[in-house]
Amino acid sequence: MKILVLHNRYQIRGGEDQVVEAEVELLRAHGHEVNLELLSNDTIQGFLSKLSTAMNVGHSQESYTWLCAILEKFQPDIVHIHNFFPLLTPSAYDACKKFSIPVVQSLHNFRLFCSNGLFLREGKICELCLHGSAYHGVVHGCYRESRLATIPVAHMIEKHRTEKTWQNKVDQFIAITEFSKQKFVSGGVPAEKISVKQNFVEDPSKEFSTPTGERTSEFTALFVGRLSQEKGVTTLLNAWKNLDFKLTVIGEGPLLSKAQESKRSGISVVGKKSKSEIFKAMNAASILVIPSECYEGFPMVAVEAMAMGLPILASDVGAIGAFVKEYHLGDCFKTGNANSLSTKLNEMATQKDLSVFRKNSRMAYERFFTPQTNYDLLLQIYKRLVPAQ
């Protein structure tokens, strides 16, 4: 099968970028001809470039022309789009329709309905735009905390909601969890057009022979991710007022300086690390903390933790908290509540045996998040849209 994969990269590499690269390599490993085309937000430099991007975020003639040339030359059987914002734009769907090529759209965030893609405002879950006008986001300056910057994004959302783009121009969507699928269905995306497929990671036990083995006797916690407000970093730091065991913080982002300047006892902020170094940290830790305060799709760090047989303590919002509870991977705390987080951590630290959580985490990985499971689901989705070859 010939597959064209499109993705608009972020300036700071994140989970979506990792997912795209992993899926492309997975498909190539199974013998498919895959062309990966990337656009990068790094190209948006200077006032005129930013203005042009904002004015064309709903439909870019430049991106349309660029993609038409690629489609004509490569002639794929299917096009798989990941992030289209802000450079690729939904004009990509029109280009695919011109050549009668089916389109799959992965739903990594909630940008179809929400200006910031998170359903988050002032640190709280907000779904005003899910059923109401996206211009609520302008009133509250939801995109980059700017009313002016939010206007073109809200206009894009309203334009494609009115034109029924999501109903008519995309053949199949991929949601990461059942939770996120139901949010999109609630917003008007046809349920029959949304498949649920989790992300995956290669089995790290190839490098670490005993991912579910005993850690050191000392209880230690680990955070891995973007250091930003929506990831619950402030709550995490505040929780250490009442804790005296070690926390290692891996990542970068707007709150990096705040984390580094924190004088909380036991906190070590080590910045960005390689994937191998992250797995080593997971192998040494007792528990992974995921304190997100927004609806996460399903963070890659959670999948990696499960692959390493690492218990998880997550906030009780969205899909990850529900998953932790359902499969007994650890525990949950009240979202945004530092006291609740510290209480739960103390409870887990005093447990003599976390081996059940470790075994459950590894079993969840083997059931849901292996490359083969992911490939089988992805190919099922493609085959529904591409005639048998």
Description:
With 389 residues, the chain is α/β, with parallel strands linked by helices. It has two domains: 153 residues, 3-Layer(aba) Sandwich (Rossmann fold); 165 residues, 3-Layer(aba) Sandwich (Rossmann fold), CATH 3.40.50.2000. It contains 17 helices and 14 strands. The strands form three sheets. A six-stranded parallel beta sheet has the order 2-1-3-4-7-8. Strand 1, helix 1 and strand 2 form a beta-alpha-beta unit. The mean pLDDT is 92.
Question: Gist?
Answer:
With about 400 residues, the protein is an alpha/beta fold. The chain has helices at about 15-30, 45-55, 60-75, 90-100, 130, 135-140, 145-160, 165-170, 180-185, 235-240, 255-260, 275-285, 300-305, 320-325, 340-350, 355-370, 370-385, and strands spanning about 1-10, 35-40, 80, 105, 120, 125, 170-175, 195, 220-225, 245-250, 265-270, 285-290, 310-315, 330-335.
Q: What would the keywords be for this entry?
A:
389 residues; alpha/beta; Rossmann fold; 6-stranded parallel β-sheet; 43% helix
Question: Residue share in helices?
Answer: 40-55%
Number of domain units: 2
Low-confidence stretches: none
Strand order of the largest sheet: 2-1-3-4-7-8
Specify Rg, calculated over alpha carbons. 21 Å
CATH fold label of the largest domain: Rossmann fold
* Count of DSSP-assigned helices: 17
> Tell me about the biggest sheet?
6 strands, parallel
The CATH fourth-level homologous superfamily of the largest domain: Glycogen Phosphorylase B
User: Under the CATH scheme, which architecture of the largest domain would be assigned?
Assistant: 3-Layer(aba) Sandwich
CATH class of the largest domain: Alpha Beta
Strand content: 15-25%
> What would you call the structural class?
alpha/beta
Give the CA-based shape. Answer: globular
**If you average the pLDDT, what whole number results?**
92
The count of DSSP E runs of length 2 or more, i.e. the number of strands, is: 14
Distance between the termini: 8 Å
